[in-house]
């Protein structure tokens, strides 16, 4: 099994509003990754190499598809997402956003696809609840009015949980194994789940 992130490594104990959290982030070094969980700011551990490679693979696959079919959007890593709820400020691993962002921009108000590569920090309970951060993020992403698809990607096995918005509501599926087909028509993405794991210990390059 590939190693996963170990824990949340720091916590700002004072409760913050969304605006206070953004001001707090402005004074932190760029390499730190903070998220607001139920009004509590938490800094996440640095991601593993496996996590980063899966994120890069997904970003490339999405951008290749978007370049061919919808150049008005692009896939970006770790944009700050402004949600209706001020108590939550997640930083998705991958998001499809509008391509016309501004120089110096850190945060977006619209995201059309949101993806998380699951880490140990995602299993931390949201303060004041018994719910894990990954479950809350999934619910927040699905409630984002612009979001059309949510991906929850495992990093220790080839598994993707996929939520797609349809006219009748959200439809969920679980895709497992390298040959399972990942298809998201809204972004013209279609291919095997195994493509997300290229150049990781689950699908190493051959000599």
By DSSP (H or I, 4+ residues per run), the number of helices equals 3
Q: Can you list the strand order of the major beta sheet?
A: 4-6-8-9-10-11
pLDDT averaged over residues = 89
What is the CA-atom radius of gyration, in angstroms?
A: 17 Å
What oligomerization state is this entry in?
A: single chain
* CATH homology superfamily name: tt1808, chain A
Question: What's the β-strand tally?
Answer: 13
Q: What is the H/E string?
A: EHEEHEEEEEHEEEEE
The CATH class turns out to be Alpha Beta
Content of β-strand:
25-35%
The major pleated sheet works out as: 6 strands, mixed
Shape type = globular
* Name given to the CATH architecture: Alpha-Beta Complex
Taken together, the total number of domains comes to 1
Quote the CATH topology.
tt1808, chain A
Protein name: Putative restriction endonuclease domain-containing protein
InterPro entries: Nuclease_put_TT1808 (IPR012296), Restrct_endonuc-II-like (IPR011335), Uma2 (IPR008538)
Domain Putative restriction endonuclease: 20-184
